[in-house]
Amino acid sequence: MRIDGGRSREDVHFDMLQASAAHSDSTILPLGEFDSWLTDRAQKQPYHVTPIPFAEMVGWHSDPDTGNLVHRTGRFFSVEGLDVQTDREWAGHWRQPIIVQPEVGVVGILMRRIGGVPHLLLQAKIEPGNINGIQLSPTVQATWSNYTGVHGGRDVPYLEHFLGPGRQPAVVDVLQSEQAAWYLHKRNRNMIIEAREPVEARDGFCWLTLGQVRRLLRRDHLINMDARTVLGCVPPPRSPARIEAGGSFLAQLRASMSGQGRSETPTDELLGWLTDIRSRRRLVQRPVPLRAVREYGWQWGANEIAHRDGKYFRVMAVHVEAGDREVRWWDQPLIAPAQPGVVALIVKPINGVLHALVQARLGAGAANVAELAPTVNCQPDNYADAPEAFRPPFLDEVLAADPQRIRYDVVLSEEGGRFYHACNRYVVIEAEPDFADAPGPYHRWLTLHQLSGLLRHYNYLNVELRSVLAGVHTLDDPGEC
């Protein structure tokens, strides 16, 4: 659709995002004042999370027939059992607890021009599973049960900009998956909406430029997962970059982002490769009662469901008191990973254009067998006793990477509304010059421009790859935060 000056709405929105990214600071909330603002918000939000026995959860119960953990309304989510069969030669069949949440939530960021500069509206929000309590989240981060008022609490602020009948056309609007290891077929609607009229920031919300947000993405446990998945969908710059053999890392990065040069894996070849994997790899998901996971090493106690080997994760229950949320207190189950994970993207220049090594990764709860994931996407301790042939490819190279070749290295929290102290080390590593060109049957080299194009569609890039791409975008700004 053409608008003023014959330019498409997509071009106008793209220019707004790039203008926002170009402003690494703002007079609205300068980065020099951000820490004080965030500390003040944390002090004004009384917050306590207490682990409790399952039997003490108010509003939740263990179904007498299945053992599933369910809410009295039948809404929100449940914790059930899943039987998974794959074609993997090692540990190819297992059962596990999994979160079942068929509702499509909204994770949306509001954008508006302030003083001629596009700003993004983010919220300082506390989630029960956050390591540090308060983190920056999207303007709206709500499940269907939340925004339809099943909890009986207050309305979700700014929701009318995303779901109201008079909302503006979306800058970004796409369904995206969430963690397939712990969710069954979970999707959220990722959105960026431009507000044409003045919008005031309520208490706990702040206007920041995209450039500011990208600098804050270099800090541990600050930008939450829901904000990162939306930011990962922001298209990279289109400005042409000169391709030179042996050019700087920054030049290679910009060439990759802007679509210059030839990709090692053409997009039509990539889509055929992924379709082939999805059609011939075996992933059979069969819901089973939560009690049935006991047969596969899961032990059920009064306070937790955990694997006998101490691996993977445990299911726990918490009582939450949060004075600045839609409801003042609640109880719920959470999934607590046994250890932090590693999410690594190996990159290298091919013909002067930076390429990223991605994998087609199966997930227990994946909606379509496999999605594109970072080079390495795992909890290393889960593979401590795995035969050498079945360790995740390139994991050892990532763990032994030369610090001089690490371009991005941040520890970031995963979704604190469902996961307790879940985090991953997100790292981008420039490969050694002799790194293998032939990565194997389940990995491919792609440009950043290709990955950005796939983000316009559902079910191509997993949530960890979207998060690490949000981090890659920060590498185009050499400034410090």
TrEMBL record:
Residues 33-234, 268-471 form the dTDP-4-dehydro-6-deoxy-alpha-D-glucopyranose 2,3-dehydratase domain. It comes from the Bacteria. Pfam families: Hexose_dehydrat. InterPro entries: EvaA-like (IPR005212), EvaA-like_sf (IPR038153). Transmembrane segments: none annotated. This is NDP-hexose 2,3-dehydratase family protein. It comes from Pilimelia columellifera subsp. columellifera.
